Amino acid sequence: MRVHSQFKDYYDNVAPIGQIFHRKQKLSALTIPKDLFEVLDKDTYVSGRNTTNSFCFRFFVIGFCGKLYPMCHSSTVFRGYKMGNKYLEKFEGFIYSEDEFDKISKRLIKDDIFLYDKFAIEKMKVKFIEFKEILSKSNFLSVFHENFIPYFILYTPRKYDDYILDFLKYGDSNIKEGNIVNNKSKKSENQICCMIHNLRLDSINFKKLVPVYQAYQEIDMFLGGLTIPQKETLPISNEVKIVAHGFDKRHSFRKDKKV
């Protein structure tokens, strides 16, 4: 698979041979089920003890080669507060499994000055599991085929996305936060979310979920399946099936029959 693109990703240099993948980014709107929309449209803030800083959790959907993966973006929110001689350490992570919440919890409470509500993080872990269950009942296979794309990200927009979330800015310069926010007036009634085609997977640390060679192979095979035209299967009559199994008017298993 040879990639033609204006930006680099982590699987590009595996084996630049075979079919061509014209990787272009595009922003579009997509109607999604209400229960999924409600999860994507709500941020959760975990406040720290003895500090005005907080920790933000936000959910996204990653569609990759016919499969849906839940992703939780976690980051510290700065409010210019200082405790003693220490500042809150900047933290940003991309969570793809419930076990990663335990690691975050240990990291955030390692310093006695910046104690975070451990139970609130446990609640986020439960929400993540519920999010996975919702996705398991969702079917977005037609999105891949109709748009001819191997992967995408689904999210609901925020006004601060243009300067907070760098992974929503990579690639095509036509993807602007202003264009995304314009969809916000429609989404409450029609449950419309935003979809970026072919986002930069390296920017969301997707390689920890799908390694380099596996990502290359899955994308190559998925694109190959999209390009193969689906042939209509012709019905087989009973007479043809009978002949195919060794029975006909002239022969049987025992002896020839005279016509």
Report on this model:
- The protein has helices at residues 34-40, 99-108, 118-136, 141-147, 161-164, 177-181, 184-190, 212-227, 238-244; strands at residues 2-4, 20-22, 26-31, 44-49, 54-64, 67-77, 92-95, 115-116, 151-155, 192-197.
- It has 259 residues and is of the alpha+beta class.
- Residues 80-85 and 177-189 have low confidence and may be disordered.
- The termini are far apart.
- Strands 3, 4, 5, 6, 7, 8, 9 and 10 form an eight-stranded antiparallel β-sheet that branches. A two-stranded parallel ribbon has the order 1-2.
- The chain has one domain.
Overview in brief:
This protein has 259 residues and is an alpha+beta fold. Helix content is 32%, strand content 22%. Residues 80-85 and 177-189 have low confidence and may be disordered.
Given as residue ranges, the uncertain stretches (5+ residues, pLDDT < 50) are 80-85, 177-189
| Beta-strand content | 15-25%
List the domain count as a whole number. Answer: 1
Residue share in helix? 25-40%
Q: Tell me about the biggest sheet?
A: 8 strands, antiparallel
Name the average pLDDT. 76
> Helix count, per DSSP?
9
The rounded Rg comes to: 25 Å
